[in-house]
């Protein structure tokens, strides 16, 4: 199938350089060798120009590391890059990895490129990198969307108020964008004279050991990075647990979640590929498929819409709607019977054993069920000295421990706790008219079974950590 035109944006007016030695693709958001429209476009153009394809990746390290990323995040990223490298080389594509920012490596290697292809990203740091590249390079630059089903601007030209306002716009376009992406044959294989890689990511543990980064948050064994693992998990999920997704998705103990979020965050699997697999599944009923696609497409892309159209999506003042900030301000002086420090929250040292279990699952394994994420966030608001401080605490804890932290969904879900994409509810102390969530929400699932599940997960993770010698 052709790549949909609305996935492609030309970022400058240069023509392809006839003297270029290769077509360059900056791997940044879509870290995979298959079902990647940016890569397939690069192959198409390279075939047309009679050139090989070079794929590059800039590894941020030390003081210039990705903001808030730690050993947990980098371990998963590097596992995925090792898998992507093997997949690219099997297709005859040259892979170059260096310690540099994405902008630095792209600008350097574009000097000999006939054409530069970029991923699309909606976070501020990604927009900055891509802006630096376009400003500096003297060759044609094309950007291709491969991280959402429906390109954000195609779905809506403005910040959407809620899922209910975006949903009909997404659904109207869904069939147009949920299409198979056939791999292109690479006609001109990688040969001599191409730029050299400074890092061999094939041994991802060795690369991680040589990096200067925050190691206080350890890598996890519950999840292994890479598109191969993502597809294996998806196949196993659709063959079994998916059949109860519609009824059990809000029960953390039921095992009905697909755990695709870390792989989506690191671009190790395409959301279109997942959508196609869900539609083709024979295990789930129509309501299971509709429910899953609501989360995968509508809810996830509502988050992309939010960060794309909100300049300071990481700040309380800019991310939280006016009505909610006003409601919280009106109750800023309310008595807060229970207060905890951020350190106490991080260690799960509260009076609420269910909240502590959710925090332990996140801290130790890098994951927490969506239903509990909402309860978890609402309690941080309730237990913090102010709404503003609660917002920043929630975001810091989220981004530090979750494998899929620092994502558009992270910033959006934290802001949702404080009223984003929601409406006023009955007035309560501390919360005002912002939605409150009490312990009664825990009655919707078997909370005792969840405690047992978390204990087993944490014990397995800690045992694996001792065996491997990793720092916990």
TrEMBL record:
Residues 21-152 form the Photolyase/cryptochrome alpha/beta domain. Keywords: DNA damage, DNA repair, DNA-binding, FAD, Flavoprotein, Lyase. InterPro entries: Crypto/Photolyase_FAD-like_sf, Crypto/Photolyase_N_sf, DNA_photolyase_N, Photolyase_Class-2, Rossmann-like_a/b/a_fold. Its EC number is 4.1.99.3. The keyword DNA damage applies. One of its GO terms (molecular function) is DNA binding. PROSITE patterns: PHR_CRY_ALPHA_BETA. It comes from the Bacteria. Its cofactor is (6R)-5,10-methylene-5,6,7,8-tetrahydrofolate; FAD. The keyword Chloroplast does not apply. GO terms for biological process: photoreactive repair. PANTHER family: DEOXYRIBODIPYRIMIDINE PHOTO-LYASE, DEOXYRIBODIPYRIMIDINE PHOTOLYASE. Belongs to the DNA photolyase class-2 family. This is Deoxyribodipyrimidine photo-lyase. It comes from Methylobacterium bullatum.
């Amino acid at each position: 199938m052709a790549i949909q035109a609305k996935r492609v944006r030309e970022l400058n007016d240069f023509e392809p350089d006839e003297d270029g030695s290769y077509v360059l693709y900056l791997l940044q958001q879509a870290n995979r060798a298959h079902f990647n429209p940016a890569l397939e476009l690069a192959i198409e153009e390279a075939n047309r120009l009679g050139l090989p394809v070079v794929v590059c990746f800039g590894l941020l390290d030390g003081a210039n590391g990705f903001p808030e990323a730690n050993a947990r995040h980098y371990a998963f990223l590097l596992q995925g890059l090792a898998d992507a490298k093997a997949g690219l080389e099997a297709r005859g594509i040259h892979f170059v990895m260096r310690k540099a920012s994405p902008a630095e490596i792209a600008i350097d290697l574009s000097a000999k490129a006939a054409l530069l292809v970029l991923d699309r990203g909606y976070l501020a740091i990604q927009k900055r990198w891509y802006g630096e590249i376009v400003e500096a390079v003297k060759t044609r630059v094309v950007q291709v969307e491969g991280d959402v089903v429906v390109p954000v601007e195609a779905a809506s030209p403005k910040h959407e108020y809620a899922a209910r306002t975006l949903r009909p716009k997404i659904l109207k376009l869904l069939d147009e964008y949920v299409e198979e992406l056939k791999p292109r044959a690479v006609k001109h294989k990688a040969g001599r004279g191409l730029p050299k890689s400074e890092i061999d990511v094939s041994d991802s543990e060795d690369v991680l050991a040589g990096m200067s980064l925050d190691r206080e948050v350890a890598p996890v064994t519950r999840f292994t990075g890479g598109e191969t693992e993502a597809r294996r998990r998806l196949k196993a999920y659709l063959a079994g647990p998916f059949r109860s997704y519609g009824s059990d998705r809000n029960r953390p103990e039921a095992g009905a979640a697909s755990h695709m979020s870390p792989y989506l965050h690191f671009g190790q699997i395409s959301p279109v590929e997942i959508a196609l697999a869900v539609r083709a599944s024979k295990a789930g009923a129509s309501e299971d498929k509709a429910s899953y696609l609501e989360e995968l497409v509508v809810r996830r892309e509502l988050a992309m819409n939010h960060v794309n159209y909100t300049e300071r999506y990481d700040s309380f003042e800019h991310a939280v709607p006016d009505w909610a900030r006003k409601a919280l301000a009106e109750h800023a002086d309310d008595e807060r019977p229970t207060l905890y420090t951020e350190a106490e929250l991080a260690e799960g040292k509260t009076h609420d054993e269910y909240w502590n279990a959710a925090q332990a699952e996140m801290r130790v394994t890098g994951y927490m069920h969506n239903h509990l994420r909402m309860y978890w966030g609402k309690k941080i608001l309730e237990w913090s000295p102010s709404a503003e401080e609660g917002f920043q605490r929630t975001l810091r804890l989220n981004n530090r421990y979750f494998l899929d932290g620092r994502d558009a969904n992270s910033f959006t879900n934290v802001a949702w706790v404080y009223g984003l994409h929601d409406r006023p509810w009955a007035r309560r102390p501390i919360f005002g008219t912002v939605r409150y969530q009490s312990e009664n929400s825990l009655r919707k699932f078997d909370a005792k079974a969840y405690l047992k599940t978390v204990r087993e997960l944490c014990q397995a993770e800690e045992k694996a950590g001792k065996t491997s010698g990793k720092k916990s």
